[in-house]
Amino acid sequence: MASVHKIIVIVGFISLFHSAFSAAQHRTYLRITSQEFTTLPLDIVIQAVVSLFAVMWGVLNVSGKLREIPAAAELNAVKWETQRNLPSFYIFNHRGRALAYNFVPTPSKGDLENLE
Q1: N or C: which end of the chain has fewer CB atoms below 10 A?
Q2: Are 1 and 64 in contact (CB under 8 A)?
Q3: Would you put residue 104 in left (φ > 0), alpha (ψ -120 to 50) or beta?
Q4: Rounded distance, CA 15 to CA 93, Å?
């Protein structure tokens, strides 16, 4: 049964590309005949809409059954103590180290250039 849906998807894509090509061809025809573009012909619009729905329906059936994604599944294995532990927010290079009694400032790039 899945092969029928795949054929529907393929035919739908071909029909959708054909409607796009027909729309471009219609615009070219209007430019050649110096007519103003107002709307696309109804048959091109209907073909595009039907093709789009055929592709969507076929893709939904080819993909199989949709399953629910349990949002809390990965949180069940995490302990409460480590819930808010965010190592990406750790900051080690901050001004709090200047308050340490044994703080020795590292020379900056400008200080090293002045020594030479």
Answers
A1: C
A2: no
A3: beta
A4: 61
Kind plus residue range of the DSSP H or E element containing 115: helix 109-115
* pTM higher than the cut 0.70: no
Strand (E) positions, the chain?
Answer: none
In angstroms, the CA 12 to CA 19 distance is 10
The rounded distance, in Å, linking the Cα atoms of 43 and 65 is 34
Which residue matches tokens 């998807």?
9
Location of structure tokens 């400032």: 105
Amino acid at 3: S
Residue identified by tokens 């071909």 is 14
Name the token pair of 91.
């900051």
Q: How far apart are CA 104 and CA 98, in angstroms?
A: 8
pLDDT per residue over 21-34, tens digit each?
Answer: 999 999 999 999 99
The helix/strand/coil state of 60 is helix
- Joined together, the tokens standing for residue 87 give 């190592």
**In the predicted model, is pLDDT for residue 52 greater than 90?**
yes
